[in-house]
Design a protein that fits this description.
It is built from twelve helices and no strands. Helix 5 packs across helix 9, helix 7 packs antiparallel against helix 10 and helix 9 packs antiparallel against helix 10.
């Protein structure tokens, strides 16, 4: 035993080892959820300072929103684009396109990540059981179920993030940072829209984004492990996508379609 850990544990966590790389990747994903989400959860459950700040901010924002019809209209549109119905449609369309283009591994990744992500949100809500905000004054939006973590924020993080990861390899490299930036802006807009409508606290939306990002990290790590088990090289998903090879495959597919003979009309 060296450094306080048994040698067998040290070997398994060593990123230079094959299994160690897998364990390290998954450990990082677990930490991403354990730290920010755990801190928020502790505050919400024991009604700590964050909970009190949540309620004060919700009341202040609600007063502003009640006198700004344009702000509320924008918030409702943005919020709809994070609804379960809309996100499910986006995920299904993305999966169908991937299957049609022959990217079955990416389609499976998208289906599992988005499907289990929704189940994870339901489980987290049931475990925490935080009621939604109760605000005086005008009613701007209605929502059913529990409050923490925000389903809109978490669903937006997972679904749009999944589509970004599976599609970024098909985009020219110079546009990729712009897409990532747009994704971050969209997450912020979704979070603000739910708070503006008075159906979530700040910690709800932050918790939803944190848990969504952690789930994406875990799913991406699992996919990376699967790739390496099949002898494929290690990738950098945010820079080159989940499967960098997809870009070359789609180019071949496009050339194949272009080379198909055009049928002549019958005389």
């Amino acid at each position: 035993m060296r450094g306080g850990l048994p040698d067998v544990v040290r070997r398994r966590l060593d990123p230079r080892q094959r299994f160690g790389l897998r364990a390290t990747l998954l450990a990082v994903a677990v930490l991403l959820v354990a730290v920010p989400f755990g801190l928020l959860l502790e505050q919400v459950v024991r009604l700590g300072p964050v909970d009190r700040a949540d309620k004060a901010m919700a009341n202040d924002l609600h007063e502003v929103a009640c006198t700004n019809a344009a702000l509320v209209s924008v918030a409702r549109v943005v919020s709809f684009l994070g609804s379960t119905r809309w996100l499910t449609g986006c995920a299904v369309v993305g999966i169908v396109v991937l299957v049609a283009r022959g990217e079955r591994r990416l389609a499976l990744f998208a289906a599992v990540t988005t499907g289990l992500g929704g189940a994870l949100n339901s489980i987290a809500k049931a475990l925490v059981s935080r009621p939604r905000p109760t605000l005086d004054g005008c009613e701007l939006g209605s929502a059913h179920g529990l409050s923490f973590p925000s389903g809109h924020a978490m669903g937006t993080t997972i679904v749009y993030g999944t589509l970004l990861l599976v599609g970024i390899s098909l985009v020219a490299r110079r546009w990729r940072p712009l897409l990532i930036g747009a994704y971050a802006v969209w997450l912020t807009a979704m979070a603000l829209s739910r708070m503006t409508l008075g159906v979530h606290y700040l910690s709800d939306v932050i918790g939803g984004i944190a848990l969504g990002l952690a789930w994406l990290a875990a799913a991406t790590s699992a996919f990376e492990i699967w790739r390496q088990e099949r002898g494929r090289r290690r990738t950098h998903p945010l820079e080159e996508g989940m499967e960098p090879e997809a870009r070359a495959r789609q180019r071949v597919h496009a050339h194949t379609e272009d080379d198909q003979p055009v049928p002549r009309p019958l005389p």
